[in-house]
Write a structure and sequence with these properties.
Layout lengths: L1 H34 L2 H21 L13 H36 L12 H20 L3 H22 L6 H32 L3 H10 L2 H27 L2 H40 L3 H34 L4 H9 L1 H13 L2 H4 L3 H26 L2 H27 L2
């Protein structure tokens, strides 16, 4: 009962902070759209996408391994391996960006991005070390700190972008505001580390860092590639739907995705933060994590079943009522994706097992297989069916098959 109570409290704590952090950008969006022109957002979102992708590569995904070692000293040096990897990657990126920022911006189709590419290496550096701090503090059950960090970064981001609108015109205000919010988050983690854990830093050894980097050397070779495949699974469908059909189809799909994924992210990330800490602890102590896996699987299934059933029956009417009659099509698409979204809701937090039990190669294979299914569905729909609705049904089927296989494999991994 004590475990259940602590687990539930931690999930609610993280979920509350995540909800507030997600709500702040939505609340200030009407203000920002009046302060910045649409083209500024286009430049900003391209910049943010570059940071997101490059940050995955920068750390070598060593930060995921922080939860694995039994000894705190080994976990600390694993985090250092991720941090030094980020530092080296950022320095190399700086050497590339400074002389070639204008050709790179032209290649990306957005010349206005060039003046801001000089911030890219620093942004990747900060995000990489922030990810390291996130996993280190998660290992030590500092869910209050993690929750506060999300709210602080989100609040600083919203306030910074509004305040800088009068000082920096165009995309610069959005980019600098976001950059400063990332700095704020990293500083908060650094201060907490210095107060609680600085003895590890004072006894650091380069030989131990190299040892842990070698111990988890399969992470850069598998988890980085798998993470990039995962981003392809998310980002490619709207691009290809726009290419194969019409911007309207891509717009309906994109709006459906944005509206439904937001609550999934809030709840899913809360469960993931708590699950991965508890699962790593059980694996270190017992060699498996059957208790927390079964509890989390049951709770996610129970929590998601009702809302997704309602979504299946009522989505077209709800979308038409909330967004206007012309958006009923997005609701129809939401009905198509009710089952795969439910499965993703359950599987996403549990997928931490792939790195906690070091099944990193299987993670990459699954992400590649999912991407192959997604591309096959889109290509068949565009060239054979030549019908947007049927193509989206195929796409929903592709996601359902991929996530279904993932859940079966996760069950087997948890019980080994």
């Amino acid at each position: 009962m004590r475990f259940q109570s602590a687990y539930s409290r931690n999930v609610v704590k993280v979920m509350t902070g995540t909800t507030l952090a997600q709500a702040l950008p939505i609340a200030v969006a009407p203000i920002l759209t009046r302060l910045y022109p649409p083209e500024a957002f286009g430049v900003f979102y391209l910049y943010a996408a570059l940071v997101s992708i490059l940050s995955v590569v920068a750390t070598g995904r060593y930060e995921l391994a922080i939860l694995i070692p039994k000894e705190e000293r080994e976990a600390f040096h694993t985090g250092l391996a991720a941090g030094w990897s980020t530092t080296l990657f950022s320095c190399l990126l700086l050497m590339l960006v400074v002389p070639f920022r204008h050709p790179l911006a032209n290649f990306l189709g957005e010349p206005a991005l060039a003046p801001w590419l000089f911030l890219l290496p620093a942004s990747v550096f900060i995000q990489g070390w922030y990810n390291v701090g996130n996993f280190w503090h998660n290992r030590h059950k500092r869910f209050g700190l993690l929750t506060a960090s999300k709210v602080l970064v989100s609040g600083a981001n919203a306030g910074g972008r509004i305040g800088l609108a009068w000082l920096i015109h165009g995309a610069g205000g959005l980019i600098w505001g976001t950059f400063l919010s990332w700095v704020t988050g990293l500083l908060q983690f650094a201060v907490a580390f210095w107060k609680k854990d600085r003895q590890f830093f004072q006894s650091r050894q380069h030989s131990e860092t190299r040892k842990q980097a070698h111990r988890f050397r399969h992470f850069p070779g598998t988890m980085v590639i798998g993470s990039l495949f995962n981003k392809g699974n998310i980002e490619l469908p709207p691009i290809l739907l726009n290419l194969f059909f019409t911007p309207a189809v891509a717009g309906f799909f994109g709006q459906m995705n944005a509206v439904l994924r937001q609550p999934l992210l809030v709840v899913g990330r809360a469960f993931e933060e708590v699950f991965k800490q508890q699962a790593s602890e059980e694996i270190r102590e017992m060699g498996h994590c059957k208790p927390v896996f079964r509890k989390t699987l049951f709770r996610l299934s129970l929590l998601g079943a009702g809302p997704f059933l309602i979504l299946f029956w009522a989505a077209p009417a709800v979308f038409a009522f909330v967004f206007g009659p012309s958006w009923e099509t997005a609701g129809i698409y939401a009905r198509y994706f009710a089952l795969p979204l439910f499965l993703q809701f359950v599987a996403a937090p549990l997928s931490a097992l792939f790195y906690l039990k070091e099944y990193t190669r299987w993670y990459t294979i699954l992400e590649f297989g999912q991407l192959a299914l997604v591309l096959l569905a889109l290509l068949l729909g565009a060239t054979w069916l030549k019908n947007a609705d049927q193509t989206l049904l195929l796409l929903a089927g592709a996601y359902t098959i991929g996530v279904g296989i993932r859940l079966i494999l996760l069950w087997r991994i948890a019980h080994q």
